[in-house]
């Protein structure tokens, strides 16, 4: 049987871990939202605050290792994303969906490992569309009460061309 002091300490630890898990989730959701909006003139500062100074961003496996490579440090990661902010626009439509979430906050409650399955629907400015899926493995660290990405890994599960743009401009059919 735990004493009141032990129970209180245990509850504080549980609450700290739950808050950390929510902060990790929030960081990842912010990252995906910003990636959905990468466009000509996009302010990369909003995205880069989500990464530690010594972060690593890397594509893994045959397809993504070749396409994206490995970028070490905040400046290298900024350089990779900067390509998406130059004319002409790369995306016409880009939406990321995350599922199959697993977040493990480490015992120190200052670091965490997480994974998701990503589904991405893209229409490129050239008119071609694609459906992609990847497994994301992401390490996070908390510094000054701010959770940041310290190591981002993405590995392709599949990519499939789509023969029409994702967004059809026709009005939606609704009952009258």
Structurally, the number of domains stands at 1
Mean pLDDT: 95
Which range does the strand content fall in? 35-45%
In spatial order, strands of the major sheet run: 2-1-6-5-4-3
pLDDT < 50 stretches: none
Order of helices and strands: HHEHEHEEEE
* CATH-defined topology: Nuclear Transport Factor 2, Chain: A
Under the CATH scheme, which class?
Alpha Beta
Main sheet: strands, sense, barrel? 6 strands, mixed
Q: Helical content, roughly?
A: 25-40%
Distance from N terminus to C terminus (CA atoms, Å) equals 64 Å
**Helix/strand/pairing class, anyone?**
alpha+beta
Jot down its keywords.
176 residues; Nuclear Transport Factor 2, Chain: A; 6-stranded mixed β-sheet; 4 helices; 31% helix
Short summary of the structure?
The protein has 176 residues and is α+β, with helices and mostly antiparallel strands. The chain contains 4 helices and 6 strands.
Overall description:
This protein is of the alpha+beta class and 176 residues long. The chain has a single domain, classed as Roll (Nuclear Transport Factor 2, Chain: A). It is built from four helices and six strands; from the N terminus they run ααβαβαββββ. A six-stranded mixed β-sheet has the order 2-1-6-5-4-3. It is globular and about 65 Å long. The model has no long low-confidence stretch (mean pLDDT 95).
């Amino acid at each position: 049987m735990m004493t009141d002091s032990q129970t209180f300490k245990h509850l504080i630890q549980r609450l700290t871990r739950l808050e950390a898990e929510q902060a990790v989730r929030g960081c990842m959701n912010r990252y995906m939202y910003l990636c959905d909006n990468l466009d000509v003139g996009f302010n990369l500062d909003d995205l880069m605050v989500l990464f530690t100074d010594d972060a690593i961003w890397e594509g893994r496996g045959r397809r993504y290792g070749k396409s994206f490579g490995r970028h070490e440090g905040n400046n290298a990661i900024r350089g990779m994303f900067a390509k998406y902010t130059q004319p002409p626009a790369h995306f016409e439509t880009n939406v990321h969906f995350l599922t199959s979430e697993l977040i493990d906050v480490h015992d120190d409650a200052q670091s965490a490992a997480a994974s998701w399955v990503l589904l991405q629907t893209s229409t490129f400015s050239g008119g071609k569309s694609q459906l992609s899926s990847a497994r994301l493995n992401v390490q996070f660290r908390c510094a000054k009460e701010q959770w940041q990405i310290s190591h981002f890994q993405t590995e392709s599960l599949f990519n499939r061309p789509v023969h029409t743009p994702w967004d059809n401009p026709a009005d939606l059919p609704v009952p009258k």
